[in-house]
Amino acid sequence: MIRAENLTRKFGDFTAVDCVSFEVGAGEIFAFLGPNGAGKTTTIKMLTTLLAVTSGKLEIDGLDPARHQNEVRRRFGIVFQDPSLDQELTAWENMDLHGALYHVPRKVRRERSEALLTLFGLWDRKDSPVKEFSGGMRRRLEISRGLLHTPKILFLDEPTLGLDPQSRNQLWSHVKDLNQKEGVTVFLTTHYMDEADRAASRIAIIDHGKIVALGTSKELKAQTGKENLEDAFLALTGTALRDENMSASERMRNVARMWRR
Amino acid sequence: MSAIYILWLRELRRYTRSKVQIIASLGQPVMYLVALGFGMGAVFQQAGRGSYLQFMAPGVIAMTVLFSATFSGIALLWDRQFGFLKETLVAPVPRVFIMLGRTCGAATVALIQGCLVAVVCVIAGFRPVSLALLPEALAFLALIALVFAGVGTTVGSSLKDMQGFQMVMNFLVMPLFFLSGALYPLDNLPRAFAAVTRVDPLSYGVDGLRSALITQSHFGSALDATVLGVLAVIFIFLGAWRFSKIEV
């Protein structure tokens, strides 16, 4: 379903993703783990046509994202790591806008929006503007929105960041359901090792833009001789803390935050 | 098609919900109208050019549309900041449609804003010469809105953060306004200066509007409409091209 061959992305002199190769089969749940700034989000951005590839080959469902952008975009849904809602619009309007952009017929759009908003406990607040929502509620809305159309591939970039255990549980059981019943391929990144351990059939660990290990959770533990995935992860990536360069939009977000106070 | 519509609708919803902003954005045109309209009126009258309020009102309306359309286009930067831009960029819709939806929305908002200021002008004492020419005035307003919404989208797609915004304001929007003949007649100007006013797109917008509202024209309304029409097409193409190159 997803195939990457020597995938590379450079920003000036800095190589964010360095000759990464992996393959994700149809119907698989694949986890991409790595410390901050390891290249997870950059990889997802390349897979989802948001960034151009510097070199290497990429295939989504047999299509090249650079040449068949729209066909590729039709095949996936994504929950971004950072916010991507329109805060001035209501929850319902955000859902509706997404449905229209993804050509979901109006009737289906309404039914599914209602089901998803109810599932994630937002139905009562569907007519409130998103700017009045708490962090957790926004996150839940992003997830509901990402699931509105039924994609072949679902990208989840740290979807559980800032969620309470209840919502996390809800999310993962829903994702597993989609995976089993509708055969949706899932590509996820997370910092919670237990989630990856439970949800993913295979795990790739990326550090400094390179894949340092790839296999099932069991294989990774065996490879490092550790009891659990967290220890295996630390054994593979070391214990040093990482710096992450802020992108232009993150800098802007910080400035905006300052001004609002 | 539904993508263009839903993004257009989004711009309108955002506009109608920010009531404070609507009122605040009427402040500047009113200030020009009062301070200059009444302040310069006597001098203008003595020079034998009639009522200055009559003369400048079309200029102030055009100014409103210029500001509103350009800023709505640049609002792209805010969407980049709040992340919503990503949501539209990964959607299975050609980026041209996304850009068209946004730009048409921006132009519509600017048009409404222009009409509001027109009402304010009428309250201040401005009187259009002929009601039959009002549709023509509206058409000119729409053309100005489209041209500058296109300019705004082009600039907004090319900037990465808000730091460039002040530059755009000082070196693009304000000169466009001051060199357009919105505040003074374009005849008998020094030759070099006249040449500059002739390359300012807004000059044709103000002139077209003036020909429809007070039947005074420097270039002739046919030329005004042609120049604006061609520029609208050019800037929308340019904006679509820049928009298609955005990476986040």
Question: Which descriptors apply to this entry?
Answer:
heterodimer; A: 261 residues; 6-stranded mixed β-sheet; 9 strands; B: 248 residues; mainly alpha; 12 helices; 0% strand; globular
Describe the structure.
The complex is a heterodimer of chains A (261) and B (248). Chain A has a single domain (2-260), classed as 3-Layer(aba) Sandwich (Rossmann fold), CATH 3.40.50.300. Chain A has helices spanning 40-47, 69-75, 91-101, 106-119, 135-146, 165-182, 193-199, 217-224, 229-237, 248-260, and strands at 2-11, 14-24, 29-33, 55-60, 76-79, 153-157, 185-189, 202-207, 210-215. A 6-stranded mixed β-sheet of chain A has the order 5-6-7-3-8-9, sandwiched between helices. In chain A, strands 2-1-4 form a 3-stranded antiparallel β-sheet, covered by helices on one side. Chain A is globular. The mean pLDDT of chain A is 88. Chain A is α/β, with parallel strands linked by helices. Chain A starts with a strand and ends with a helix. Chain B is mostly helical and 248 residues long. Chain B is built from 12 helices and no strands. The chains are: A alpha/beta (261), B mainly alpha (248). The interface between A and B is medium-sized, with 37 and 32 residues.
